[in-house]
Amino acid sequence: MKKSIQLASMFALTTLLTACQSEESSSLDATDQQSSLITTVQLLPPSGSDLSVKDLTASALPPINQARDTIRFSQSIDPTLSLTAPKMTQHQRSDQYWRTVSGAQLNAGIKLAISQSESIIRVAPRGDNSSGGLLHSPAIAPEQLRLYKINKNGIDKSASIIHSMSDPQAMATAGIIDDSSALTLSKQASPGQYQLQVVQPLAAQDSYLINVKEKGSPYQLELDAPAALASNNDTLKFSLAISDSDSDSDIALQPTATLKHSDGQYYPLDLVNIDQQWQAKLPEALTLPSSNRGLSEIQLDIETRIDNKPVIRTVKTAFKQYVPSATWGQSAQIHWQQQLPVKAVLDLQIANPGRYELSAVLVGTDANGEARNILRSQSALWLEQDGQVSLAFDADTIIASGLKAPFFLQALELKDQGQMARLSYLNHAAQL
Amino acid sequence: MKIYNKLIMLGLFAVSPLTYAASGLAFIHGTGNQTDALSDYWTSEFVDSVRQGATSPNNYVVINCDFDQYMWEDVAAGCLAEQLSTFIDNKAITDLTLITHSNGGNLVRWILSNPTWDGRYPKIINAVSNVIAIAPSSGGTPLADAVNQGNVFETSLGWLLGYGSNAVKQQQVSWMSYYNNTWLNGTTNRPTLGKPFEVIVGSDVESAIWDSDSYCAGYQYQVALETTQNWLDDCSDGFLECQSQGAAGTVWFTDKQRTAGKEPLSHQQSRRACFNLDTIIADHI
């Protein structure tokens, strides 16, 4: 590089750096001298669908996120976006069911309830370790499957009711990679009882999963259950109903329930029905999974008759089991500069060391007196003991929004990144 | 004086960060442990065609990570963050477009939604200008439920046998509902992603043996995807329902609205140069 260009570059760089430094220092001087202020605001109590922690409990499991660095992030958000509280329940519906059967049962023939023409039946081999070693049952080619209608006179073998078949290779290319075979019933297949039989000789102890999917069936089993469950709750409450577009009568359900942890372990659950809501009692030893990874599931199975047709359904939903490991204090310190809130500091009480994240939306007021969003601020850090976490609010972003006081703290949320659990949520946290 | 001014301008140009500002393109695969996603997942035909639409066609990276794991794991999102971060640093990328397929959209949403999880995330979020999510599994798929179902006889054997990876477990409908409501942004009544997340929806599968269109990306896949459509809504690409694909972000278009011959894009075809998908994206970026 020529000497004249080098000189020009250095001059330009020096000028730029000088300009940046002087701007920053004069800004800080002015702020310090003019209008730094710290106020304390009380956080509003939880209401409505807010989530709050009761009775701090230490988590005994290794944390998923063990990062020690403090990370802060903020970004402006749509001023008119509605800040909606997260849903605390999940709704699931099912038009299918699963059954596990043995090789001996399949060779002898098993009964299946079908309530819908064009239903699809999938047969998937499963594993077994009852002998001490891992045995993988062999796949069954669809040509080895026989399906017959059962009527008043017995098994009717006179008509073919299979529309199409798919072998394990075809199923695998579509993402079902468990050696499944599938057959689809024809339009002529009427609702009722069927017999599924496998011609190929199977070992008696082989294990197979049968999945009957009744797409388009009016009989949908609907489940509403919590999306998360704190460890100090030993009861899981849920509602269960079966939709029936053809009948006005209430259908009595007698479900059986299982709890499945993310490690694949299953446990039967006792159910009681109180005021049309079901409760599953979680045995003390099963209240928490063995790992923070993944989710737990509750699975409900029912067998009933609707309009004199046999209907079987399985429905399940996932939920997070967690311990209430941290909570915030009752107040927040708000740092002001030139009449703008630039930082909120909250006290955190924790039951065990871990990585916790706090987030909130700063809201201002427009010329019409309407509350509008300005920015979302997030901050995560590792805490060994009770401590403080601060949310930064960029003054330039606040000024650019054109919004003024009164300012509000909304959508205040506390998460435990070690458990991957939301611990607390306040839709309206405070007026600053 | 004239020469002096020119030297000043030249000096400014030489030290200005704008000198190195650049746009970049990243291709992010779906579920699977990839070591050569260019050949095994996307094909060079698709990638080379799409990047011709970029401002700097040679500034691109094809991600290879283990997306058989939960999205938040270090070998999944951490691996993605590392490769994107290296790409951003090496090429001084300030304007990054991400092209994702299937579960890759969830990985990107994880990073955009959780800036405080990992120190590498904020830089990536700041560099990203746009996400084009092809057939993202934002709402999960009943097929993941079908594969992961079982009962007491299996206990943990299903996982040992490789029936369902953690990524497949994660894409069960109720699991994605939990993650969307707690850890992922961009779905209804949740915080926005802060970046455009434009979705291309695949709406059907065609496998007529006499129709040459059914052979794009492999006829056998089309036949299989027609079978799996039985577990899905009528509007689906054979693996994902349209509702799931459009659950997060903004639907840019549903296949037939723009594809050549108004052909639908099955889940296999939507990562290949089928029915002008590659040129539609190239013209858009």
Q: Radius of gyration of chain B over alpha carbons?
A: 20 Å
How far apart the termini of chain A lie comes to 56 Å
Pick out the low-confidence regions of chain A.
1-31
Radius of gyration of chain A: 31 Å
Helix-strand topology string of chain B: HEHHEHEHHEHHHHEHHEH
> For the report, how would you describe the main beta sheet of chain A?
9 strands, mixed
The number of helices of chain A is: 4
Shape of chain B: globular
Residue share in β-strands of chain A? over 45%
Description of the structure:
Chain A is mostly beta strands. Helices cover 12% and strands 50% of the residues of chain A. Chain A is built from four helices and 28 strands. In chain A, the strands form five sheets. Chain A has a nine-stranded mixed beta sheet with strand order 3-14-16-19-18-17-20-21-15, with no helix packed on it. In chain A, strands 4, 6, 7, 10, 11 and 13 form a six-stranded antiparallel beta sheet that branches. In chain A, strand 20 (296-306) and strand 21 (309-322) form a beta hairpin. Chain A is elongated, with a radius of gyration of 31 Å. Chain A starts with a helix and ends with a strand. With 285 residues, chain B is α/β, with parallel strands linked by helices. Chain B contains 13 helices and six strands. Chain B has helices spanning 2-15, 37-42, 44-51, 74-91, 104-113, 121-127, 142-148, 157-160, 166-170, 173-182, 219-228, 242-245, 277-284; strands spanning 22-28, 60-62, 93-101, 128-134, 197-201, 250-254. Chain B has a six-stranded parallel beta sheet. The longest helix of chain B is centred in the N-terminal third of the chain and has 18 residues, at 74-91. Chain B is globular. The model of chain B is unreliable at 6-19 and 151-163 (pLDDT under 50). The interface between A and B is large, with 85 and 66 residues.
